[in-house]
Amino acid sequence: MNLTDLGGCQCGACRYAVNTTPFIAYTCHCRACQKLTASACLACVQVPIEDVSLREGKPSSHVRMADSGNQLQTFFCQSCGSTLYAENSARPRVRTLHIGSLDHPHKVEVQAHIWTSRKLHWVVLPSEHRVYPEAGDWTQDYASDPTRYHS
Question: What is the mean pLDDT of the chain?
Fold first, then answer.
């Protein structure tokens, strides 16, 4: 799947462009992502950091410690608060785009689900998707560039 799209926040102050082949698209059901989205999960797509370019605005960011011990830095619009993407200290050459911030989120096909041990009971996952009770194993997804992946 090639992903060529624009994305941004709700108010339009922050805009970015992406043109790449993603490594993996997934949903995260951890409590932090539920809180971040005020929803059941966060839909993400991991891409090479250099394939995303900021076009407008200057996002703010917030850093938190993940259950894994990694630092997660989430970037969001200073004006409207919409989240755009995140970066993980374990994968500094990868940007995790929040699929909902893309102009055409339907272009992305989710393949996996992580932290399903914390998913809300009424969420039903497709049987053909990979499911991880905790953190995902993306080793096979990074086969084209294993230098970007550290578990």
Answer: 93
